[in-house]
Design goal:
Distance between the termini: 4 Å
Number of strands: 32
Strand content: 25-35%
Largest sheet: 5 strands, mixed
Shape: elongated
Radius of gyration: 28 Å
Structural class: alpha+beta
Number of helices: 11
């Protein structure tokens, strides 16, 4: 007999009288998969349930689009998916991605658990698979998985710490009742979260349409139009000009390439700080010093010059709101303008989907990466209204953007609270804190088990 670690006992709290804590290995078979994605001569054709199939789905179902591969007879015998199993992620580049579960809903002949995953197969008598799947999502068990993993740049969860993790074990009927309750409650929460995400998408689409209309057609719907001669732009008001961006630039500049740290005299903006045409000043990194010409000033416009292709070209305007020295990383570029093209107007133009799509065709591409250097970006022809009209468009769009950001923030906060509530509900249910689900709600001491 070995004592339950005190930190594990504290994480579960007081359990009901009839519940006990036991090691996972006494209630489930645990196997780490070694089935790779290769197709080899002499092996049997199979389909593989891979890392992303588990990571992005709560349940593994037969209608999923599994990849084709081959496997040996031994692998097929050991790793064919069966109803009631729980598949979890055992390897990851991020510590937080260890132990993500998915429940196997039915037997799936010919579908195998792939590499970087573990199969947990409950005995069905002391442990129910659906209950175990919810347990894996709860902090007390998932934290044991994380702490049991090893690595620095990549983390892996071995069989010993996995098998030695402690789980609560109510009677099997209570487990099934808890699993059914969580299936129902979380489905409702997830549906509400999905509706809120859809609302955020609609708000973003509405804002995008408003910006595009204003910066390409102006504010006067009766203004006569002319062909801009630019494919991405189409028609523009007849009195507007169309010129390459470089005509209006006083500077285009790459950011710093120094190693960043958690402390220093100068804060550094990175790609993640470019949000919704503005600058997010949270989660900053730092360096000790930078050349003065690399410090940001009010109305500097930045854009992502290198990243995955869907992120290249994202822009933001810095409005001088940081209380301290602020610079930018090398994968960003900075533009400054000569007064004939207002930076706020330029930032709105940069944010249009049509321009982004066109700009990305000019990027140099490599495997998994694209690079749009400032010189090539500056060759793009842009709409150029008179300065007074640029000001009017800025004054029209800015309050709409602020209003959209306020509503977006409220919805995002609501999603975060719902997500937190969902996690808390799961943990409360699987640790016996929801009395209506219990046959014996009275708390008792934990039972030690080797």
């Amino acid at each position: 007999m070995s004592a339950i670690p005190s930190e594990v006992a504290r994480s579960y709290g007081d359990l009901p009288n009839s519940w006990r804590l036991g090691k996972l290995k006494f209630s489930a078979r645990v196997r780490n998969s070694n089935v790779d994605k290769k197709t080899e001569d002499g092996e049997e054709p199979v389909r593989l349930c891979n890392y992303t199939d588990v990571y992005y789905n709560d349940r593994i179902t037969p209608d999923m689009d599994f990849m084709e591969a081959t496997a040996t007879e031994s692998e097929i015998e050991r790793f064919t998916l069966k109803q009631g199993q729980v598949i979890i992620t055992k390897d990851s580049e991020g510590w937080d991605d260890i132990g993500i579960p998915a429940y196997v809903t039915e037997d799936m002949p010919g579908v195998l658990c792939g590499y970087h995953l573990s199969v947990l197969e409950p005995d069905g008598e002391s442990l129910d698979g659906a209950f175990l799947s919810w347990l894996c999502r709860a902090d007390p068990l998932n934290d044991q998985f994380k702490l049991g993993s090893n690595g620095v740049t990549r983390y892996g969860l071995g069989q010993y710490p996995l098998k030695s993790s402690f789980i609560p074990l109510p009677d099997i009927d209570t487990q099934r009742r808890i699993a059914g309750y969580l299936d129902d409650k979380t489905a409702r929460i997830d549906a509400l979260i999905e509706k809120k995400w859809a609302l955020l998408d609609r708000l973003a689409e509405k804002r995008q349409a408003l910006i595009t209309r204003a910066v390409t057609r102006g504010l006067n719907p009766a203004a006569p139009l002319k062909d801009s001669g630019v494919d991405w732009l189409g028609q523009v008001p007849a009195h507007w000009e169309v010129w390459p961006l470089k005509r209006y630039l006083t500077e285009s500049q790459y950011g710093i390439s120094e190693a960043l740290s958690e402390a220093g005299e100068v804060a550094i903006l990175r790609m993640g700080n470019i949000q919704n045409l503005g600058v997010d000043l949270t989660e900053l990194k730092f360096v000790d010093e930078v050349a003065p010409f690399l410090l940001l000033q009010d109305n500097d416009v930045l854009f992502n010059r290198t990243n995955s292709i869907d992120l290249v070209g994202k822009s933001a305007i810095y409005k001088g709101t940081y209380d301290g020295a602020l610079s930018f990383a090398s994968y960003l570029a900075r533009f400054r303008f000569d007064g004939r093209y207002l930076p706020e107007f330029a930032n709105f133009v940069f944010g249009t989907e049509q321009l982004l799509e066109y700009a990305r065709t000019m990027a140099f591409r490599a495997i998994g990466q694209a690079n749009l250097n400032p010189t090539r970006f500056a060759e793009i022809a842009l709409p150029v209204p008179p300065v007074d009209e640029q000001k009017a468009i800025i004054e029209f769009l800015t309050p709409h953007g602020e209003q959209t950001e306020a509503v977006t923030s409220q919805i995002t906060t609501s999603i975060e609270k719902l997500t937190e509530y969902r996690a808390a509900l799961v943990t409360a249910a699987v640790t016996g804190k929801i009395r209506a689900l219990l046959t014996d709600p009275a708390p008792a001491a934990l039972i030690e088990e080797a």
